[in-house]
């Protein structure tokens, strides 16, 4: 007599298991999510965590905006969170407006004549904004007591710090070679950060969605929303020089999809995973074009530093340098075009609702979605 041996699977299989969430000293973090445990995005010394199936990994934020993850974030023991909380705000280096309304800078990188022309044109552009702040070159270094924006070219990436960081040391602005492709817009963007402007797409009331299923070209904290308490209150401004574009993983959703239904960098449960099919491609040209220093940008700078006079605020168009036209290089859609991303790991999430909740007839290869 022959016996047939049946190998029965365990009751709880991997495929059907629900990914576990994380708990960091009482702070709950959803699987696949990112959350600041101490401080906030782009505050040097802040700590944020990412959760992958019950395993939390913590990172210290160096405060560098536009930088890819491996430049801006250092992995740390999650136990450091308790130490940071105990020390309180004294450990934080808060950004602020520049003393005497002077943003000091020094050009310390080995830039070509063309690149220097772009930097100087970007600096000059801000003088047209009629804001009570000036950009001045610190030469000799004693002129600014050693505190200035150090414009360098250490690697092919574009990044810097937001506003004045009161640590008594030079603060870096890195402008890699590709930051100069297509015009002066990317340099205007980085100078905006140095003066105190945050990314416009982090506005708490933004109208774009983040395609988190894609390999985002810069660190995820560059997409985390600012709360209404953290940011200067002004209307959301898609034209802002500080707004990322379509190639950086942002888009306006099609009108038939409710904006509030989508998952985000920090919200990954009971929501719809944004994907390409949700995007309204007809509106791609409205964001990240680097075409103007917008009236909204200027109003924010005036809120920080005041206005020179009461002239009506208007967009300041980004000029095209004649020397750039010879290269035949099109303007980059976004600062994030300048970064070559590293591959990211993915993990499944059973919490995000599938596309066919909102797209009739959609074929979903992986209903759990990827992050």
From TrEMBL:
Span of domain Peptidase M12A: 90-309
Keyword Cell inner membrane among UniProt keywords: no
Signal peptide: 1-17
Residue positions of the active site: 190
Keywords, in A-Z order: Hydrolase, Metal-binding, Metalloprotease, Protease, Signal, Zinc
Domain of life: Eukaryota
One GO biological process term: proteolysis
Gene3D superfamilies: Collagenase (Catalytic Domain)
One of the record's GO molecular function terms: zinc ion binding
EC numbers for this chain: 3.4.24.-
Cofactor mode of binding and number, as noted: Binds 1 zinc ion per subunit.
Binding site for Zn(2+): 189, 193, 199
Broad enzyme group: hydrolase
Name of protein: Metalloendopeptidase
Organism: Hyaloperonospora brassicae (Brassica downy mildew)
């Amino acid at each position: 007599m022959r016996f047939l041996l049946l190998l029965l699977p365990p009751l709880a299989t991997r495929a059907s298991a629900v990914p576990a969430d994380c708990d960091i000293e009482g702070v709950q973090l959803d699987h696949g999510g990112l959350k600041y445990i101490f401080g906030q995005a782009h505050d040097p010394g802040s700590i944020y965590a990412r959760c992958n199936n019950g395993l939390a990994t913590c990172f210290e934020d160096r405060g560098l905006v536009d930088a890819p993850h491996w430049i801006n974030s250092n992995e740390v023991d999650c136990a450091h969170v308790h130490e940071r909380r105990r020390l309180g705000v004294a450990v934080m280096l808060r950004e602020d407006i520049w003393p005497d309304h002077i943003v000091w800078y020094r050009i310390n990188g080995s830039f070509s004549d063309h690149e220097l022309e772009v930097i100087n044109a970007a600096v000059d552009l801000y003088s047209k904004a009629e804001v009570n702040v000036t950009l001045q070159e610190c030469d000799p270094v004693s002129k600014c007591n050693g505190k200035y924006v150090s414009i360098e070219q250490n690697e092919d990436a574009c990044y810097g710090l937001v506003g004045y960081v009161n640590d008594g040391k030079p603060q870096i602005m890195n402008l890699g070679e590709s930051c100069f492709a297509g015009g002066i817009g990317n340099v205007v963007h980085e100078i905006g950060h140095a003066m105190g402007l945050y990314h416009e797409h982090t506005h708490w009331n933004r109208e774009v969605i983040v395609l988190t299923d894609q390999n985002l070209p810069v660190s995820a904290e560059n997409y985390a929303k600012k709360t209404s308490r953290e940011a200067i209150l002004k209307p959301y401004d898609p034209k802002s020089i500080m707004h990322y574009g379509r190639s950086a993983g942002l888009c306006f959703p099609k009108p038939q999809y409710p904006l509030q239904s989508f998952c985000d960098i920090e919200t990954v449960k009971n929501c719809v995973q944004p994907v390409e099919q949700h995007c309204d491609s007809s509106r791609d040209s409205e964001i990240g074009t680097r075409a103007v220093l917008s009236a909204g940008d200027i109003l924010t700078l005036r809120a920080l530093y005041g206005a020179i006079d009461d002239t009506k605020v208007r967009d300041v168009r980004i000029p095209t340098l004649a020397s750039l036209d010879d290269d035949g290089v099109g303007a980059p859609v976004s600062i994030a075009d300048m970064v070559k991303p590293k591959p990211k790991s993915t993990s499944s999430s059973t919490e995000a609702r599938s596309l066919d909740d909102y797209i009739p007839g959609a074929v979903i290869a992986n209903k759990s979605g990827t992050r």
